[in-house]
Amino acid sequence: MIPTQILRVLSTIRMYDVRALLMGGQACVLYGAAEYSRDLDLAVLATPEALPTLREALESLNAAVIAVPSFDVAYLDRGHAVHFSIPDGSTSPLRVDIMSRLRGVDAFPVLWERRTTIALPTGAGDAEVLVDVMALEDLVAAKKTQRDKDWPMLRRLVDASYAAARDDAVSDAQVDFWLAELRSPAFLAEVIARYPEAAARSSRSVVRAALNHDDMDVALAAEQVQIMVQDRAYWAPLRRELEALRFAARRTRE
């Protein structure tokens, strides 16, 4: 269930016709991989033409930037997240993180074309809020980070996808997605057994390990470590830039 406070923000974003995709924990809730998430994460179209409308929507919600960097297209375009706090009279402020570029994920226009639109009840009669959500495949890619906490969620995301459709007629694309992304050895072994020709074409090291009767847990752990190293390398220059911005902000206040 998406909290009312978050529905209010999503409804406002849509009212202003902002191109924004729900991602992060709230998207995982909608895909059946989580029960609750506190914050709101959005991927947005960050261009000089689009950003003013997003700024208007956030101002209407009394959103305030709570950390560096500032709300600027240049920072979003380089891959930074801009962090906002949105007050609410009855609950604690809502944190909203906005990004435009994510490692390992296509550019926003491509994500927008693949989006899923979901109607969410508001709790006020038959009223609904239409929410544009990042496609499952893109959300999975975005969850491959250096943070340990993202990996159980990543596993649940793909598990839920397979568990919901395993007994249905599935497309080749679905099978390829499961072979590429499943992290539960039992489910992955089942897909390999059901679709041996697709598995034989897979270049994923974990699938190759399973076909060779090697330990899938070891292969999965090695795969995770490799991706986490790549994510740390991606964020290293961005973290250095953030530290410089924080230092400059402290010097300004002194």
Describe the protein:
The protein has a five-stranded mixed beta sheet, with helices on both faces. The chain has a two-stranded antiparallel ribbon with strand order 6-7. It has twelve helices and seven strands. The radius of gyration is 20 Å and the shape is globular. The N and C termini lie far apart (44 Å). It has 254 residues and is α+β, with helices and mostly antiparallel strands.
Which CATH class of the largest domain?
Alpha Beta
Total domain modules: 2
Output the radius of gyration.
20 Å
Query: What is the CATH topology assignment of the largest domain?
Result: Beta Polymerase, domain 2
Shape: globular
Poorly predicted regions: none
Distance between the ends:
44 Å
Name of the CATH architecture of the largest domain: 2-Layer Sandwich
> Structural class, judged by helices and strands?
alpha+beta
Average of the residue pLDDT scores = 93
DSSP helical segment count? 12
In short:
With 254 residues, this protein is an alpha+beta fold. It folds into two domains: 4-135, 2-Layer Sandwich (Beta Polymerase, domain 2); 143-231, no CATH class.
